[in-house]
């Protein structure tokens, strides 16, 4: 069947059908899930597609073993004319779901076939609301496969057809398209999405791990535009401080206190009185030491309070002996 449909003429096909009215069905049975229409689409034979649609239009709705309908194939290959012929027979083909619930539009986007993509959107504007088995929208896939032009077309389409809410839709991991763009460090897409007139993208949407797009950013330029758009870190991330940083903070504070103590011991005599001529130095050193420790703990208040105290406000195990000055400023 494949060889004949790839190389055969229209006249030969018509002759076969006239001699045996079931020849197309027989070909389909031998095609391991592929109908003659699938094969014609794979071969990009527009002429054969037209004949087959005339004789057996129902073939257009068939999905093969790989999860492809004829329109899925045309979309992936970028065959605009074949896609038009198929849609001219059955406009609802845009919604035929293949493997993992993917519609033809997804394959046009993944393969960067903008012309077919536009044709499919024109035939079924609401298809942008369809999701895959992973709850991914077409915008998720466009970002995921770095199809920047497709992102532009899709966002404009969503605005024009009052589907802008799809922009903030989440996949099964809680990721919006903005999460994916930031995670991929795709400045062009992030910048485009955040500067859309009449559309407010949710820059603080959280995924299932409580992370906002800002938590995923590793580039300063992306963090900057996110921050200007009002982005914040996720609640969980704000509390996820590095234990190493916290310990370092407390160690530095302890060293300051220890040095101060040792210096003061030197300035005082054995009877507890300040040594002659050291009154001024003692006062200045005490004041400076207090101020250093005080401001140090104030600056690192969140770190130290998170480390020293549990969520219930109790002192954490092992922190009972931390110097009193730290608890005073907390």
From TrEMBL:
Keywords attached to this entry: ANK repeat, Membrane, Transmembrane, Transmembrane helix
Chain positions of ANK repeats: 32-54, 66-87, 173-194
Organism whose genome encodes this protein: Eucalyptus globulus (Tasmanian blue gum)
Alphabetical list of SUPFAM superfamilies matching this protein: Ankyrin repeat
InterPro entries the UniProt entry points to: Ankyrin_rpt, Ankyrin_rpt-contain_sf
Gene3D superfamilies documented for this protein: Ankyrin repeat-containing domain
Keyword Membrane recorded: yes
Annotated SMART domains: ANK
Name of the protein this chain belongs to: Uncharacterized protein
Any Pfam family: Ank_2
Bilayer-spanning residue ranges: 249-268, 280-298
């Amino acid at each position: 069947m494949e060889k004949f449909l790839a190389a055969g003429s229209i006249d030969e096909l018509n002759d076969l059908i006239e001699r045996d009215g079931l020849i197309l069905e027989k070909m389909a049975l031998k095609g391991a899930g592929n109908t003659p229409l699938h094969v014609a689409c794979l071969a990009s034979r527009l002429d054969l597609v037209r004949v087959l649609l005339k004789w057996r239009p129902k073939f257009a709705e068939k999905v093969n073993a790989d999860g492809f309908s004829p329109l899925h194939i045309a979309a992936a290959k970028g065959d605009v004319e074949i896609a038009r012929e198929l849609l001219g027979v059955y406009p609802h083909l845009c919604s035929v779901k293949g493997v993992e619930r993917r519609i033809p539009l997804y394959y046009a986007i993944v393969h960067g076939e903008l012309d077919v993509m536009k044709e499919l959107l024109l035939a079924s504007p609401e298809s942008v609301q369809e999701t895959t088995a992973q709850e991914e929208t077409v915008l998720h896939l466009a970002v995921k496969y770095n199809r920047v032009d497709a992102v532009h077309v899709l966002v404009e389409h969503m605005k024009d057809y009052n589907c802008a809410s799809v922009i903030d839709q989440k996949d099964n991991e809680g990721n919006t398209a903005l999460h994916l763009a930031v995670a991929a460090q795709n400045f062009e897409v992030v910048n485009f999405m955040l500067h859309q007139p009449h559309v407010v993208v949710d820059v603080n949407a959280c995924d299932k791990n409580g992370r906002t797009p800002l938590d995923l950013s590793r580039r300063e330029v992306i963090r900057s535009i996110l921050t200007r758009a009002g982005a914040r870190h996720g609640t969980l991330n704000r509390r996820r401080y590095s234990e190493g940083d916290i310990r370092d903070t407390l160690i530095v504070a302890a060293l300051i206190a220890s040095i101060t103590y040792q210096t003061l011991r030197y300035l005082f005599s054995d009877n507890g009185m300040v040594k002659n001529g050291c009154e001024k130095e003692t006062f200045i050193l005490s004041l400076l030491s207090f101020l250093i420790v005080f401001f140090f703990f104030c600056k690192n208040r969140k770190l130290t309070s998170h480390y020293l105290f549990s969520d219930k406000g109790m002192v954490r195990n092992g922190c009972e002996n931390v110097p009193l000055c730290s608890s005073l400023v907390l």
